[in-house]
Amino acid sequence: MHERIRHLQTGPKPALGIRLLHTARLDGAPGGNGEPYHRVRDFLDGTATDLDQVTKVVYHLHPTFPQPERVIADRSTSFAPEMRAWGQFTLTAEVCTAYSPTPTPLERYLSF
């Protein structure tokens, strides 16, 4: 029994059970294009154990955003960037962990 426990503790880590979610709320008057802007918060959702493994998240926004690549390393915010947005696009993210050299890709379609 002791050998099995030791093996499980030193074996490869399981895949993360993390999802990319978002919230959005109307944010003031329409922009120059006439479309209403929304305050958007993207974040990681998962167990505390899985989220504790994350070191940073690299978000890839639509190229029309200022700073379309954003790196967030703040666990206390669930690795959440905040932005104002209108329209629709696919948000992609690379979740980096302490135990894997390869980031885990996630994506979420946003439509407002």
Automatic annotation (TrEMBL):
Pfam families annotated for this entry? pYEATS (PF20305)
According to the lineage, what is the superkingdom? Bacteria
Q: PROSITE patterns, per this entry?
A: YEATS
All copies of the YEATS domain together span 1-112
Which organism is this entry from?
A: Kitasatospora herbaricolor
Name this polypeptide is given: YEATS domain-containing protein
